[in-house]
User: Which sequence fits this backbone?
């Protein structure tokens, strides 16, 4: 099996006027200074995206469950934490997952962060208020888009021929392939 390829991802967000916008992942860390929350369905590729964001020199990737075990010592003030899998905290620790993460962030000096969570498990109303209370800015909510048909064919072509990849993507039973993370 080949090494996995990485396809640059697209994310959407809605402004205060209700207008939808699309961003490339490479732009979101520079565009948004406030806390960023990346939402998406299971298996869509949130972890791959977060790992990629965490590769930047000014970022540090960590899984949410590991993050909560860190000692309470300040981190580099210019570094942005890229925290993956808020939804996985509920299984590992008692209490509200977001409150647990915000408490840890406060103990580290309230560093800037990007956080990922499954869409269905994100409680927008209270979470936005809680983050705004701690960071004096509501978070920017970004939704990870599924791979386009062309992107899915490109990714699948690494494993099979381009023709077979296109055939698989275009077959009626392959709708789930468009949601696969590569």
Assistant:
């Amino acid at each position: 099996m080949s090494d996995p390829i990485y396809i640059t991802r697209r994310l959407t967000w809605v402004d205060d006027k209700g207008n939808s916008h699309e961003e490339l992942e490479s732009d979101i860390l520079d565009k948004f200074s406030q806390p960023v929350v990346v939402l998406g369905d299971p298996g869509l590729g949130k972890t791959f995206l977060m790992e990629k964001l965490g590769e930047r020199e000014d970022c540090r990737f960590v899984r949410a469950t590991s993050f909560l075990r860190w000692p309470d010592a300040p981190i580099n003030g210019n570094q942005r934490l890229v925290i993956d899998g808020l939804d996985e905290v509920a299984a590992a620790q008692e209490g509200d997952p977001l409150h647990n993460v915000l408490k840890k962030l406060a103990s580290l000096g309230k560093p800037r962060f990007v956080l990922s969570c499954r869409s269905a498990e994100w409680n927008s109303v209270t979470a936005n208020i809680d983050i705004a209370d701690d960071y004096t800015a509501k978070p920017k909510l970004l939704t990870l888009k599924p791979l386009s048909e062309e992107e899915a064919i490109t990714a699948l072509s690494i494993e099979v021929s381009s023709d077979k990849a296109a055939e698989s993507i275009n077959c009626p039973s392959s709708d789930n392939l468009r949601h696969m993370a590569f």
In short: The longest strand covers residues 113-118. The CA atoms of residues 72 and 107 lie 6 Å apart.
